[in-house]
Structure prediction request, 284 residues.
Amino acid sequence: MTDAAFDPHSLPPLRDVIAQHGLAARKALGQNFLLDLNLTGRIARSAGDLTGVTVVEVGPGPGGLTRALVASNAKAVIAIERDQRFIAALQDLVDAANGRLTIIEADALDVDPVDIAPAPRAIAANLPYNVATPLLIGWLKRITEYVSLTLMFQKEVADRLVARPGTKAYGRLSVITQWCADARVQFNLPPRAFTPPPKVESAVVHLTPRANPEPAEWAAMEAVTAAAFGQRRKMLRQSLKSLGNAEALLAEAGLTPTARAEEIDVPGFAALARAHAAGVGKRA
Ligand code: SAM
Prediction:
């Protein structure tokens, strides 16, 4: 522990914080809280060694995971919360953290963590599921700016992040994620682990920047995966027509025209993206 003075168990139980501040969960903000400090400690440990790292947390809520992050070796924690009710409720934790915790009231979709946290930086969050995917895509675009991302998703999304070619879950999100990051599911959690319980299972995913990502441009990668998976049952020579001369594009990328999107691996999509960005097959 960086700060021997911080003891997360010295604070009132999270249930008391919720009762005292009248923090009824709001479904529209994806509020499903983790009140078991053993569990939040496990998520914080999944982030790996945080020594010297500034951790950005999205959606601290009543502060269960925040307590675990402050208790870790992290240099500092910056938590972004959209629901104003939690700002006052988190004040005891801010005081106990001796300057290592800052709360920012904002919509995380409007904040780039790179702008608010010095390097080395990481993100750890039990994400609000309604905005989890757009948040992840934004962070992946700048993944090399992070040591790691440790994120709770609904399990169905976690499965897509790590899905391999040829499986039902394999899609755009799998390709884009695995192109720029190494993604690993750490553990699953049942609905009853949360208060109130969500309808779905959840999973913690740990993502780190890939050492040698296939060269390709982000916009081109988005364009080819959108076209290919937009009609995932069709052969690529058909589904890629929206990008121009599909046969020329596929020949340049060294791919079989009769293949379908779900059979193409990340290097295959990167080759397609490079061909597309180079203007191959584009109609005048
Ligand atoms: N971290 C807490 C925990 O584990 O118990 C709460 C997690 S809860 C699943 C999601 C949190 O994100 C809620 O506190 C919610 O208010 C907050 N939130 C929802 N949408 C947000 C947004 N766009 N920006 C920032 N916080 C948001």
